[in-house]
Design goal:
Elements (H helix, E strand, L loop, with lengths): L3 E8 L10 H16 L8 E5 L15 H4 L8 E4 L5 H14 L5 E8 L6 H8 L5 H4 L5 H17 L3 H15 L12 H6 L7 E3 L2 E2 L9 E9 H5 L5 E10 L13 H14 L8 E3 L5 H11 L7 H6 L16 H5 L3 H16 L13 E8 L4 E9 L2
Parallel strand pairs: 2-3, 2-4, 9-10
Antiparallel strand pairs: 1-7, 1-8, 4-7, 5-6, 8-11, 10-11
Helix pairs in contact: 3-14, 7-11, 10-11
Length: 389
């Protein structure tokens, strides 16, 4: 099977942006990504768009909107994918499959979301579409409430780890100061993140505001090419391995604190790559809520179930630790425009591998892991990335 590489990318800042809609956001990154790759629109064989939408906009059919910003793409086959918060990775993996199957040589991947124009109550309801509404629609706090329930269950089993969650939040906010694309470039410090206050209230107890990722606008794009095309370009980031594993949607039918699908995806990717965690130089992981990041430490194999707090206390995932996690600031600081997130996480890893991450840079980064999930660890994607050129 042919190997596909990431050969170019583009990224808007994340936050409350003036761009009025997804169409304008995608237009900002589509041409820029192709220019970064050194390719023309006429060389694109397929377009893969990741936008969740599900009510953020009455305008759907986002796959057809890429050509509105880049008319040269009007006749290129395009499709939109949706996989909750893993929408961006779903679009990227579909593009990789397209190229590696030989159906095309170059694919453009665009992930985007416009969230901040929607009233907060409506946004909370839209995000609940990533849960099992038949059983979970009435959880207080919307999707934050889903993870508040997961945190409560975890604390009941393993003890109150609110302090460790605050340390994760503080770590990611500190890292995000160095990310020029981040929505929240502010180091809040541990004490602020750990204290419940008027400025840091409970959103869905035991989760405080600083335990929750941000509502964001933004877009990111990636260009994927086959080996022959990539050989003539300036950069090539390859996949040592990639894996996807799902889990059952309702929380009632599984252990919500196990993230079994995430563990399976990590196990499959590590086995396919022939590596252990010790071989990785960094990980970008899906910290939609701080409790998710802590459980993900366990799912990736950094700790046994219930022992993720030790990873925090020992500083293993700090920027200067044994395995830096979310040197970009993660979703917590960078922001979480749903459709863009998975694409953005891969771009952050690519910057590290190209030694172009600026103040975020992990020295001598050669092998990076990316974990992006949809829902409460329902759709789970793990990529092991390495620089080929």
């Amino acid at each position: 099977m042919a190997r596909a590489s990431i050969v170019g990318w583009a990224h808007t800042p994340f936050g409350k942006l003036e761009d009025p809609d997804v169409e304008s956001l995608m237009a900002r990154v589509s041409g820029e990504a192709l220019s970064h790759a050194g390719l023309g629109a006429e060389q694109v064989d397929g377009i893969y768009v990741g936008v969740m939408n599900n009510g953020f906009s009455k305008q759907g059919f986002e796959a057809a909107q890429v050509a509105l910003g880049l008319p040269e793409l009007a006749h290129v086959p395009a499709m939109r994918l949706e996989n909750a918060c893993a929408t961006g990775s779903a679009a990227l993996y579909a593009a990789l499959d397209f190229v590696e199957s030989g159906r095309g040589r170059v694919a453009l991947v665009v992930g985007a979301e416009k969230m901040t124009a929607t009233p907060l109550a409506q946004t909370s309801d839209i995000l609940l579409s990533a849960s099992y509404r038949k059983e979970e629609a009435d959880i207080d706090g919307g999707f934050a409430g889903v993870f508040g329930r997961i945190a409560n269950t975890y604390f009941q089993k393993y003890g109150d780890r609110s302090e460790e969650l605050a340390r994760i939040a503080a770590k990611n906010h500190r890292n995000g100061v160095e990310n020029p694309y981040a929505q929240m470039r502010r180091d809040f410090g541990f004490e602020f993140c750990n204290l419940v206050s008027d400025k840091n209230p409970y959103v869905a107890a035991p989760l405080r505001r600083t335990d929750c990722s941000l509502i964001s606008d933004g877009a990111a794009a990636i260009v994927v090419a086959d080996e022959e095309v990539a050989e003539g370009l300036a950069r090539s980031i390859g996949f040592r391995a990639r894996a996807q594993a799902n889990d059952i949607l309702p929380l009632s039918r599984r252990d919500p604190t196990a993230f079994a699908g995430a563990r399976l995806a990590w196990d499959k990717a590590k086995a396919a790559a022939g590596i252990t965690l010790d071989d990785l130089d960094l990980v970008e992981t899906h910290d939609c809520f701080t409790v998710a990041e802590m459980i993900e430490y366990e799912a990736m194999g950094l700790a046994e179930p219930g022992q993720g707090y030790r990873v925090v206390r020992e500083g293993i995932t700090q920027k200067d630790g044994r395995l830096p996690v979310n040197a970009s600031g993660g979703l917590k600081s960078k922001g979480h425009p749903i459709g863009a997130t998975g694409v953005s996480m891969h771009v952050m890893a690519c910057l590290q591998l190209m030694n172009e991450a600026g103040g975020m840079q992990i020295p001598d980064a050669r092998l990076a892991g990316v974990f992006n999930m949809g829902g409460a660890a329902v759709a789970n994607f793990v990529s092991i990335l390495e620089r080929r050129r």
